[in-house]
Structures are given as C-alpha cells and as structure tokens.
Amino acid sequence: MKLSIPHIAAWIAVILSLATCASLPYNQRGEKRPAAFYLAGDSTTAVQSSGGGAGGDWAKVIDAVKNSISAYTPYVTIQFGHNDQKASANISIEEYSANLKELALEAKATGARPILVTPLSRRNYNSSGLIIEDLAPQRNATIQVARSNGIDFIDLNAASTKYLNSIGKAKAVTYNLHLMCITLL
Ligand SMILES: *[C@@H]1O[C@H](CO)[C@@H](O)[C@H](O)[C@H]1NC(C)=O
Ligand SMILES: *[C@@H]1O[C@H](CO)[C@@H](O)[C@H](O)[C@H]1NC(C)=O
Ligand SMILES: *[C@@H]1O[C@H](CO)[C@@H](O)[C@H](O)[C@H]1NC(C)=O
C-alpha cells in the first residue's frame, strides 16, 4: 500500500473526563476508565500540524494509545482527504480507502476504538451561494470503509456542509484562519 502517513501532519491528544458516562468500560479494579481522545489527521484536524514529515506522528498516536490504555478508554479519530485528494499526492480513492482502513484497524488492534471522520468542508461557494462539495468522493469512501469494516464514523463533511450552507459565504469567511484561507479554522 502507498501510505498517506506523510500527510499525517497533525495529532493532538485531548483527555476528557467522562466519569459520569455509565456506558464506559471498567478497568480491572472495577473503576470506570475515562475516555482519552487522540486525533489523527491532516491540518484541518489541527492547525499546529507540522506540514508533513517522516510519518512519526501516527507512531505517536499508537504509542499514546498504548500508554493510556490501563487508565483510559482510548478513542482515535481519523480524518483525511484534503491533502490526499490533490493531484500531486497521486493517491487514488482506492488507496485512500485502503489507508483509512489500515489506520483504523491498527488503532483497533492496539486497543483503541477508531472513529473515522469525513473531511471538514472547505468554505468554497458556487454561484448559487452553496458549498462546492469537492470532497464528496472522500466523504463517500470514508463512510464505505466504516460501514464495511464495522468502524464508527462521524459525518463531519455533511454536518459542516449543512452548517456552511445555512450561514452563507459572508459569515463563513469569518472562520478563516487567515485572509484567503478557506480551509483551516
Ligand atoms: C501515481 O501512482 C501510481 C500507483 O501507485 C504509480 O503507478 C504512478 O507512477 C504514480 N505517478 C506519479 C506521477 O508519481
Ligand atoms: C451549487 O452547488 C449545489 C450543491 O452541490 C448544486 O445543487 C447547485 O447546482 C450548484 N450551483 C451551480 C451554479 O453550480
Ligand atoms: C460511493 O462509493 C461506492 C463504493 O466505492 C461507489 O460505488 C459509489 O459510486 C460512490 N458514490 C459516489 C457518489 O461517489
């Protein structure tokens, strides 16, 4: 497989205390283990992304899962598409799908619960004033991978598209990280 690992530019760990959530698993001492969320993805996941590199960031996610597993219930969210869809990346939808599956299954094998996330919409409007759904193939593929492998998913692409259509272009650009950046928040 051709790994999209170089595109795993960003990962951030967020520890959330969900002590009141009754459905969380218990540790060996019978105590609830709070959730630990690890976010893997491109720079739409976290803007402090290093912008590429040798792929060490996914290894950090896996290490973080391993290190947290005795005390936490680890979840790994996985969101790609923005970089992978660029022609220069030369990654087909089939390769994109295979990559997502491999990352999710590796997270699962390490003991985490993977959650695939469809890519955040760009804030790019067409002349009808509606979002140009240029990540539709990646959204579709992400959902297909999730469904066919029994992996949970969050349809962030649909949710963000719906939201951006409702607020319109003028308000949408107020989310720009900097002038002209219609992708990052
Ligand atoms: C694009 O990827 C395909 C399949 O991996 C490969 O055969 C081809 O040489 C690549 N093209 C470029 C320009 O790198
Ligand atoms: C704008 O995008 C919407 C949603 O994809 C589409 O239904 C509509 O036809 C598009 N309008 C133009 C002018 O392309
Ligand atoms: C969604 O993915 C499936 C399976 O890969 C494919 O058959 C279908 O044409 C895709 N639909 C769209 C709208 O991309």
Structure notes:
- With 185 residues, the chain is an alpha/beta fold.
- The protein has one domain: Rossmann fold (3-Layer(aba) Sandwich), CATH 3.40.50.
- The protein is built from 4 helices and 5 strands.
- A 5-stranded mixed β-sheet has the order 1-2-3-4-5, covered by helices on one side.
- Helix 2 crosses helix 3.
- The site of one 2-acetamido-2-deoxy-beta-D-glucopyranose has 5 residues, from loops.
- Keywords: Coiled coil, Signal.
- InterPro entries: RhgT-like, SGNH_hydro_sf.
Overall CATH class: Alpha Beta
Oligomer: single chain
Number of strands: 5
CATH architecture: 3-Layer(aba) Sandwich
Q: Could you say what the CATH topology is called?
A: Rossmann fold
**Global geometry:** globular
Low-confidence stretches: 1-23, 50-54
SSE-based structural type: alpha/beta
End-to-end separation in angstroms reads 31 Å
The biggest sheet amounts to:
5 strands, mixed
Query: What is the helix/strand order?
Result: EEHEHEHEH
Mean pLDDT: 81
